[in-house]
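Exam review. A common question shows you a sequence with its structure tokens and asks you to describe the fold in words. Practice with the pair below. Do the first one on your own.
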Amino acid sequence: MITDGLQILVIGMGVVFIMLALLVGSVSLTAWTIKAFGLEGKPPSGETPSTGQPGTGAVAAAISAAIAKFRGERKGS
């Protein structure tokens, strides 16, 4: 019975080790691919190159509009 438990332990830990090795390998391959093709310095479209985030004016306007709408709904109830 102990040998069966040890066998399950070894198989389970082996599966976990293989899955983690595949995960590390795939992340490393992805990082290498990004560096090889020079994609790491380009920001996604719609973002400012200096900060990598959308313009702060648009974000502030959206937040202000959401607050005004929330306060208007609270006064109405």
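Now try the second one, then compare your answer with the model answer below.
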Amino acid sequence: MKKYHSLLMSLLVAFLFTISGCFGFDPPAPEETAPSHQPGGHSDQPGNTEQSEQSTHEKGSGIEDQTGSQPDTEYPPEGKEDDSEKENQSEIGNGKPSGNMNETSENAQDKGGKSEEPEPDNEPEAPGKSIPAVVQNMTLNEKIGQLVMVGVNGTQPGSHIKALIRDYHVGGIILYGKNIETAGQTVQFLNQLKSINDKANNPFPLFLSVDQEGGRVERMPDAIEELPSQGKVGKAGDPGFARQIGQLIGTELSAFGFNMDFAPVLDVIRDPETSVIGDRSFGSDSQLVSELGVAAMKGIASENVIPVVKHFPGYGEVSTNAHTGLPVAKVSLERLQNVDWVPYQKAIANGADVVMVTHILLPKLNTDYPASMSQKVITGMLRDKLGFDGVVITDDMTMGAIKENYKIDQAAVRSVKAGADIVLVAFNYNQQISVLHALKQAVKDGEISKEQLNRNVRRILRLKRGYGLTNSPEGKVDVDRLNHQIRTVLETN
């Protein structure tokens, strides 16, 4: 019986295995990886549109990467409106490649004064951290503010500059000699500006700029040793010396809290006796100006201060000062290309971050408007021909060259339309407000496209992030130490 019972059990087990196959009770197969186009995959997931535009690592800085916009104070006397509408990412245009070593395209990594390794392409940026994402979530007023740099009155912040920072979100301040008295006062002034910007909840630190060239354009307090003019450096003819002077400029400016310097001058002078620039230039040889200018530029940038090369398209030919009237240079395009633009080509090839375009009329290129308002000069020549894709800033729009010939607010609009990213309005609060209003209205009317506005703001914010601008205050300046550094360099050259 046991034998038959065992046989019966064996047959029963075999029967059960047979029918299990019929009903599909096979063990489950290993899980397959979800295809990339499914949620959790790659580019088709909603909300990742910025990643295609920002594939490389952007250097960390003091900029708060806020994706939510701050409450905005309207520009008086306009009525209240909702200007917090965010542009779609599809509206943000892509930039063109350029010769700029720091940023060769709109997708380039932000190097600023220091280089950085890009993140691997397969590591997407954290949501809200990319510059396009930040720009997308800015209000119109915040964007317009970044396009304007203003001057201030007095030696401490007054009500006007507080309003410009708090209510109009201006992106930069320039100080002149009238604003600078002592070392302590200057540091305190800049710290107060940073504090106002911080308390206003502006997510982007200010450009804090100055004209510090050396020689007759010397803005530092009297307690600081003076630096030689570029003309004296040019006579020495030593790029190493030019770099040391640039580095000294960067060191002293950084100590006070400045983060941008309108230097070096790249103008090539033709006649030293009649040239307005004179000893502010390294000289009359374009190759020498190129070598010394690039060396000085790199010296300034080495101290994490943004150098602004000037005065494109070349100011060494004229005898009229743009502060009082509109200079006219009847030079040929051949002269511009073979002489005046050579230093700029060299600077751009060596990573120039910012170019200032000045108020000079070039009838061979534009008979109606100066270079600072000319699309043919800014976009056609500087951007397209010379390949510059960094930040373009105008010379002061309150100079006689502009205010005696054009309405400043409309001149500012024309400059931005021509390709400038920032307009400098150094004097007169009412004119500064007028420019801000005019730029805003031009965007609303479609005269300045949203694509161009976003592109300009992205350039500006990348520059700020690249140099690590912050609202952090500076401490006391060691004047003795600065003077010792300056004397040491001057005594050994």
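Model answer, second protein: Confidence is low (pLDDT under 50) at residues 15-128. DSSP finds 16 helices and eight strands in the chain. Full marks require stating both points clearly.
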